[in-house]
Amino acid sequence: MQEVVFARDHDFATTQNLYGLFATGKSVLEKLRTIVDAQRLCAAISGLEKLLRGRACFARQLSRCLGACVGEETLQNHQARLRTAPEELRVWYGLIRDRRTSWKNPTTGSSPP
Q: What is the largest CA-CA distance in the chain?
């Protein structure tokens, strides 16, 4: 389960699985909403809106959700898509800069995507 955390509580050089740098909680929710809309994820299943029992989410009513809220998409498929959607926001940890080249992970020697 992903959660909003604060920079003061984490060392970005050693903490894995951090996504994005945001100034406010509102900006986090706005970005999540953008990702959910772009990937046609269910906002209700993703936790961005409430779902009334037995009803489709608002995006599904507009054909903008693949239907995890009403069983038209499996929850496993939806969760897999939800986990991979924010990859462009991943904060690389343990990076060092070699002045002659570019950013490198000291452990693997690989560059960020």
A: 59
Q: For the whole model, what pTM was predicted? A: 0.65
List C-alpha distances in Å: 31 to 80, 82, 110, 113: 18, 13, 27, 20
According to DSSP, the residues that pair with 19 across neighbouring strands are: 90
Give residue-wise pLDDT tens across range 27-55.
888 888 898 899 999 999 888 888 878 78
- Judged by DSSP in three states, 88 sits in helix
Check pLDDT > 70 for residue 95.
no
- List Cβ neighbours of 20 (8 Å cut-off, separation of 6 or more): 28, 31, 86, 89, 91
Continuous segment of H or E residues that includes residue 27: helix 25-39
Distance CA 65, CA 56 (A): 9
The amino acid sitting at 61 is: Q
Encoded tokens for 1: 């389960």
Helix (H, G, I), strand (E, B) or coil at 90: strand
